[in-house]
Amino acid sequence: MTQWTWARAGARNETTGFIGRAAELDAVRRAVTQARVVTLTGPGGVGKTRVAVRAAHQLAVDFPDGVFITELSGLRDAEFLPNTVASAVGLPEIASQEPMDQLIDHFAEKRTLLVLDTCEHLVEAMAVFVDILLSHSSGLVFLLTSRQPVALPGECVLPIPPMPSPDADASEQDSDALALFVARAKAALPSFGLRDDNRSEVIALCRRLDGIPLAIELAAVRLRTMPLEQILGRLDDRFKLLSGVRTAQARHHALRTTIEWSHDLCSAPEQELWARLSVFAGGFTLAAVEEVGSGGELADLDVLDLLGALVDKSVLQRVEGVAEYRYRMLDTIREYGAERLESSGRTEEYARRHQEFFLRMAQRAGEEWMGDQQVEWADRLAADFDNFRVAMDFAIAHPGDEAGLRLVNGLCGFWLGKSKLTEGRRWIDRALAAAGPEPSLEQGIALCQGSYFGLVQADRGVSETVRRCRTVSEVLDDDFLRARAMYVEACEMLMWSGDIEGTMASYDTTRRRLRGSGDLFPLAASYINTSLCHAAHGDPARALREVEEGLAALAHIPHERWGRNYLTIARVLALWAVGRPAESRSTGRKVLPSALAQGETMSLAATLEFLAWSACELKDTNTPRCCSAAPRRSGVRSAPRCGACGR
Question: What is the reported pTM?
Fold first, then answer.
């Protein structure tokens, strides 16, 4: 089976008013009561996603365990399909369990609707994925959107048709196509209204466009720049090429013709930018467009003006982003731009520019990760994670300048801070394999980071990688790498050796090296490791001292979260172990908002675990009476375990 995160959790909000589709929504509601896989099919632009999202909102009451929507258009590699869906459902990464196994366990007894939007490019993997989850659950229902069925036994395929062509005397009240055109036309030109003197032109236009919603919307937005009669005339000229062709083929041509027509109505610079923007996945910022899409024929033009023009013409959508607007293309429009870029022979040129932009972002993020902008960086990188996946794919497919290694190294803080170690390790392994065996600084950093991630996940299989860290550092005679290699060796001792005294001595030696190299991340992590170790092995007072030393090392960056959160969590454990449960509980409650803001699930899990121990010790009124204080054993306090509730 294929080795199996961009996703958006929960129910997505609609950015424009929903028009019509009552029959299609009724069909979806009936279908999900009769089948566990319902696939909405149809050509691009026909409205599959809008129907699925609206149906999901309406069906929420019928699925008590939740409705989750995962957008897959930006996911290019089926390997990460389970990771993406698990992230959308809100499942934390568990080192000892594959995402697919997590999903199987999670959905086993739940009544849940899982909407997977835009599946056609993953259809083979999707068939395996859906089949496995169906066979291991009783109440899970899938609602898919795809240009083709998944072809599973029992799959209910609902073709989403274009909106019916309006009759000659139709009005907004009895024609979805007219209602859609008028609504979008008023948004483009507030003075527009359907009147006796323009009704026939609007009806003719909707008929020409075969009722395809995207085509209707693209036409309506043109009212900003030309009168209705001229819009219809231009479409008539173009549609003469399709005379005599009807049904599904005509509908496909209707959409493509409308997109081509919209393309022709753009200026040459707007057309050029449209093509260049097709290299992005999932969305992009103005800064990204200025770096990737500018230059050449556009050298003397303001990219912001061109972006605004493409938004006005509905080629781009503008959405809220992290501290700034983001822009995105519908898949059908992006594919058309990609075709134009490919036909010009410049796809690789702009894919490389795309890679270089996101490489610079990743490298800067890596340099500034252990700093006051850590949370902001995490959010920025998360927003562009589909683009980073595309950039890493390109870099790995075009080795030679170590771009793949530099990308994965720059993103290491992100993977750690967002608890995405499994995917991070896979990208690191792929980048190392593509780069070849020749020792280099970037190779050494990737080896050390991959080793650390594996040790955090308690994977005994990373021992050989730990050895390679040391070898590369010695071959290069590099003190920075040597200190990192010593750090992962100390982590390995902590995990497996059982020699606490020897391990602590190794950490002391390693810290001297790390201070000399100025490598703050492993230095802070070393204090986290040793404080937790002392708290768990009978010396909580020493653990508290380690916490204070670690926090002192971070004092110059007061808004850094990852290291400070984990050190505070170690303090929660140490205060509980030293017999101060009230302070432990108070400290844990204070760190929870910070861990939540960071979105790092491992720290949240640890905090809640330790808070539960303190609650048991205090016999908190919010704790079940069956729980009791933790037993003492040889001077070391073990975790409370209640037979009734498991605490």
Answer: 0.78
